[in-house]
Amino acid sequence: MANSCTGLLSLSASALIVLLIVMEHLTRDSMASAMAVTKGNEETFEYFMFSQEWPYTFCTENEPSCNNTDKLVPIFNIHGLWPEKVKGDCQGEFNYSQLKPVESQLRKYWMDLLNPRGNPKDFWNHEYTKHGRCASVDSRFNSTLKYFQSALSIYLKYNVTQFLKSAGIVPGSTSYKASKIIEAVNSAFGYKPEIDCFAPGKKHGEKSKPAYLAELRICFSKDLTPRECESSGREVPQPRHSAHTLYYDPELPRSFHREAEANVYSPIKMSRSVKNLIASWIETERPTAVSERKRIWTSPCKDDEDVQLPEKLNY
Ligand SMILES: *[C@@H]1O[C@H](CO)[C@@H](O)[C@H](O)[C@H]1NC(C)=O
Ligand SMILES: *[C@@H]1O[C@H](CO)[C@@H](O)[C@H](O)[C@H]1NC(C)=O
Ligand SMILES: *[C@@H]1O[C@H](CO)[C@@H](O)[C@H](O)[C@H]1NC(C)=O
Ligand SMILES: *[C@@H]1O[C@H](CO)[C@@H](O)[C@H](O)[C@H]1NC(C)=O
Question: Where is the catalytic site (predicted)?
């Protein structure tokens, strides 16, 4: 016993000597850069959140700019692959020419829903510049092509439209409990999704407004294997209770359009984002106190306790 311990000690002592000799030969600068590389690869971000949008809800949120609705198909569309908990630098530039080999697939699955007939290049550029660059220190994602290929491979391998379908959740005029949607993804994917939902405002005196499934977000480790999402900290409307029902509509929500046609106040017509929508709603309703405001904001897509307005939906 004593002997083997001594052996170990002398082994680690000689290892230490070797290390010291190596260190002596390294300059301060090269040590620093060696450490920076390690830091870059391991700590620049923790994991990916893969966000997919339901085209019809997205268009409803963004009318009137999303006007070519005949181009939409009832299949989840890629919104983005977002590095989460980014600590390092976001580097590099969007390089459209690299995307040639995957462009036809991207055009199909990563549409710019704001402009379904146009060139999605600007949207891809936005997503890469804002999110993709933050993964580029990792050599697995260090080019525009690698980043978009990663998103496509995830999309093709983990089909959330199919996950829902397998659990009997299909686009139509039925609404589904948020808990059922979450469970469907959980059982097919292994982890719960983050849900983003949308409820187009509620007038005084109204008890509730229908809520719509807007986005499903699932998370991945850097090796692109599934993992759980941590709280993203994004100020986006979330289903208040898992008991809430969400519509998963294969067309633009009808009730909403009836309201617009009836020439009732239509916040959607006036704004391009939920934030503006809410701002314009405040403007119109002029709540006098926070409690009043809170009452107005009580919506299926917002936590009762959380009276803060969404900061921005500019992701
Ligand atoms: C669709 O919306 C875009 C952006 O708002 C606008 O430029 C275009 O003229 C619209 N097209 C139609 C057919 O309304
Ligand atoms: C874009 O990528 C291609 C292929 O890797 C490369 O040849 C080209 O120089 C890049 N363009 C820019 C502006 O970096
Ligand atoms: C990306 O990483 C690969 C190693 O996988 C390396 O050969 C290549 O030079 C890197 N490209 C850039 C732009 O850093
Ligand atoms: C995903 O699943 C849906 C529903 O089954 C299907 O229509 C669609 O083609 C699938 N998408 C891909 C890329 O396989």
Answer: 79, 127, 131
- Residues 193-203, mean pLDDT to the nearest whole number: 71
Burial of 145 (0-12, 13-18, 19+ CB in 10 A): middle
Pocket flag, ligand 2, residue 129 (CB < 6 Å): no
Q: Is 314 in the pocket of ligand 2 (CB under 6 A)?
A: no
List the residue whose alpha carbon is closest to atom 9 of ligand 3. Answer: 139
143 lines ligand 1 (CB under 6 A): no
CB under 8 Å to 196, separation ≥6 — which residues? Answer: 214, 215, 216, 217, 236, 237, 238
Which residue of the set 127, 194, 215, 259 is catalytic? 127
Q: What predicted TM-score, i.e. pTM, was given to this entire model?
A: 0.72
Is residue 126 among the annotated active site residues? no
| pLDDT tens readout for residues 31-84 | 333 333 444 445 689 999 999 999 988 887 776 667 677 788 999 999 999 999
Q: Which domains does the chain have, with CATH numbers?
A: 44-235+297-308 (3.90.730.10), 237-292 (no CATH)
Radius of gyration in angstroms for the set of CA atoms belonging to the chain, rounded to a whole number: 24
Q: Alpha helices, DSSP H only, in the chain?
A: 2-25, 28-43, 55-62, 103-109, 121-130, 144-157, 160-166, 178-189, 254-261, 267-270, 274-285, 290-297
- The pLDDT of residue 27 is above 50: no
The mean pLDDT value of the chain amounts to 70
Question: Which residue lies with its CA nearest to atom 7 of ligand 4?
Answer: 75
What six digits make up the tokens of 39?
Answer: 């830091």
Model confidence at 258: pLDDT above 80: no
